[in-house]
Amino acid sequence: MRPLFHPPIEDVPPNAILHALSDPNRAAIFASIMGAGCVEACSALAAVGDRVIPKSSLSTHFKVLREAGLIRCERHGVEMRNHSRHAEVEARYPGLLSAIVRAYASSGCEGATSAGS
Amino acid sequence: MRPLFHPPIEDVPPNAILHALSDPNRAAIFASIMGAGCVEACSALAAVGDRVIPKSSLSTHFKVLREAGLIRCERHGVEMRNHSRHAEVEARYPGLLSAIVRAYASSGCEGATSAGS
DNA sequence: CCCATAGTTCAGGACTTCGGAACTGAAGAC
DNA sequence: GTCTTCAGTTCCGAAGTCCTGAACTATGGG
Question: Residue A91's closest chain B neighbor by CA?
């Protein structure tokens, strides 16, 4: 497939990460990828709680997360594997991701429920 | 003046905080308030680096920060004192604010430079 | 009382995001 | 090899959000 652009983590400004995760849907997606051992298919995340997310929105969300350096996407056959780049982000911005995920988890919001394994 | 609404910190969802701080201008304002000993007047922050922020935008930014539970505003005479509620937020979402501020600082972005005073 | 200062509100335009429909690319059926 | 199906992307219009200048309100001083 065309070479999906993944920015080096040093080029990602903090506000891009905050923006990406300031959307509860994206936060839920990311928490799910991060919690589920760094691999998921897109369609597996088509629902956050009760709410069904349209495919197109989902695609956009993944694009935002990808461009924020939070995930790495590669095509495996017909579906997409999404690896969390959480270790890289952690190295670049120590404590940021864990604090955010913890914040969502402690708020009882749907943002990180699926990360609770 | 009318009783400016300050939400209790427990009522503030994490995404509101992330959203508030995902704007570099607001991040700079907040970093400045937090770094400068928790008191500032609005007009003292009318410029982020080279960029001049219009009063109306500034007012909106303060409102967003206030409604995200990040600052507490009270009128003293003709001007406004803005206290950082950073301790409360820290208690509610441990490590979140410090990680964000540190991220902005380490990125060399203008988000937290003014906190170095 | 009138003026100056600090901040808020409103309205119009620019920008972003959402979501359905159509499209592309890969795997399996025939 | 070709057709069908599945997974995801792109396109475009609708809806919402954000920015900002202009007008307004509130406070303090002369």
Answer: B103
Q: What gap in Å lies between CA B67 and CA A109, rounded to an integer?
A: 18
User: Does the beta-carbon distance from A103 to B96 stay under 8 Å?
Assistant: yes
Q: Letter for the amino acid at B71?
A: I
Of A17, A18, A109, the CB nearest to B13: A109
- A24-72 per-position pLDDT tens digit: 999 999 998 988 766 777 777 767 666 788 999 999 999 999 999 999 9
Residues from chain A contacting residue B94 (CB–CB below 8 Å): 99, 102
Choosing among 3.40.30.10, 3.40.50.40, 1.25.10.10, 1.10.10.10, the CATH entry for A12-107 is 1.10.10.10
DSSP alpha helix (H) spans, chain B = 14-21, 24-35, 55-67, 86-92, 96-107
Question: Is there contact between B60 and strand C, defined as CB under 7 Å from any strand atom?
Answer: yes
Answer yes or no: is pLDDT of B60 > 60: yes
- Taking the CA of residue B74 and the C1' sugar atom of nucleotide D30, their distance in angstroms comes to 27
Q: Which residues in chain B are closer than 8 Å to A104, comparing Cβ atoms?
A: 14-15
- B40 within 8 A of B32, measured Cβ to Cβ: yes
- Domain formed by B13-112, architecture: Orthogonal Bundle (1.10)
